[in-house]
Amino acid sequence: MKRILWIFFSVLFLPVYTFAGHLEPFKNIPVPEQNPQTAAKVELGKKLFFDRRLSGDGTTNCGTCHDPEMGYSDGLEISLHYPTTRNWRNSPTLYNVAFHKYQFHDGRAATLEDQALFPMMSAFELNQNLDYVEEEIRAVPEYVAAFTEVFGDGDTTKERIAMAIAAFERTIVSRDAPLDKYLAGDQSALSAEAEKGYALFIGKGKCTECHFGVNLIDDRFHALNVPENPEHLTDPRIAATRRFVAKVYHFEEYRTLADDPGRYLITKDMKDWKAFKTPTIREITKTAPYMHNGIFATLDEVIEFFNAGGGSGNTVLKPLQLTPEEKGQLKVFLEEGLVGAPLTMTYPKIP
Q1: What is the pLDDT of residues 222-242, one digit of tens each?
Q2: Is residue 61 packed enough to be buried (19+ CB in 10 Å), middle (13-18) or exposed (0-12)?
Q3: Contact, 173 vs 280, CB < 8 A?
Q4: Spatial separation of the C-alpha atoms in residues 100 and 279, rounded to whole Å
């Protein structure tokens, strides 16, 4: 009985940091058995990714909002949109999406194959009819030949289109960053200031409570009460998008919805009200602005937000009390330690 009590109180009073996740160097990319990678499939997916046929008016493609030159995001507060409409969330980077357990800020898709179709049929993104795009792709002889090579016949179904795009997206990876080398034993991989920042990242900064593992995410959703952008709240096009999405997900009070409910729209669980997925912070210097609504333009603003304990009223974060010097060191680590080897993009010739 004494031993049981000792174990109970030992666990109860363990320091919080012992529950934080561990950092891991880059590993092999996870690939689902039902959609194995092949060079031909990746090349087909790349062509489709950059093909404007995927949009209703033929002006945009996946790469419009996930631009390789912009960290596979688009550098805007909220993502680009179909003409006359407006999006309502920031375009997340595609770096290392192969590792994500959930896709999108609200986690509504569990696989890259599922994710690929959402923007195509979204009224405020590519606004394409999926049955129609099948016929558009089938009308191109080069695509029929490519689908035959990859899948055994030229049937250009939306499911196969998604599989090919997902295969390409699994090649968008950040690897061999200084952090990876440091974790693998190269103590010289981080500069002196970056190493101090790393110590803060895993210690006083409590960053590894949510940013850990290979991809520096916990695959969870948190309500940090990120500030709303007043301009977004008064834009009628964003209001229309917000209400439309809420209606699609059967939110009864969609007509009076004034802000973004986050994960709640998917789960209908109040613990997920205004909760959003933890983003990867690999290649973070390339993916500004930050947060689900792009409210923070710089890393300094992000660090200050977390140092202050998050948004007013949130119950997830506590003030960190980092000094100005420590905030600077943490920023150096984020800027220097998480940038991987250059990922060269050779743009395909669209048939």
Answers
A1: 999 999 998 898 999 999 999
A2: buried
A3: no
A4: 9
Q: Name all domains of the chain by residue range, CATH numbers in brackets.
A: 39-169 (1.10.760.10), 178-337 (1.10.760.10)
pLDDT band of residue 118 (cuts 50, 70, 90) is very high
For residues 123 and 248, what is the distance between their CA atoms, to the nearest angstrom? 12
Assign 8 a pLDDT band (cuts: 50, 70, 90): very low
Which neighbouring-strand residues pair with 45? none
The structure's pTM equals 0.91
pLDDT reported for residue 3: 37
The 10s digit of each residue's pLDDT in 40-49 is 999 999 999 9
Q: Which of 15-19, 36-40, 53-57, 342-346 has the lowest mean pLDDT?
A: 15-19
Taking Cα atoms as reference points, which of 202, 230, 227, 199 lies closest to residue 310? 227
Amino acid at 49: F
Q: 175-211 in b/e burial notation, b at 16+ Cβ within 10 A?
A: bbbbbbbbbeeeeebbeebbbbbbbbbbeebbbbbbb
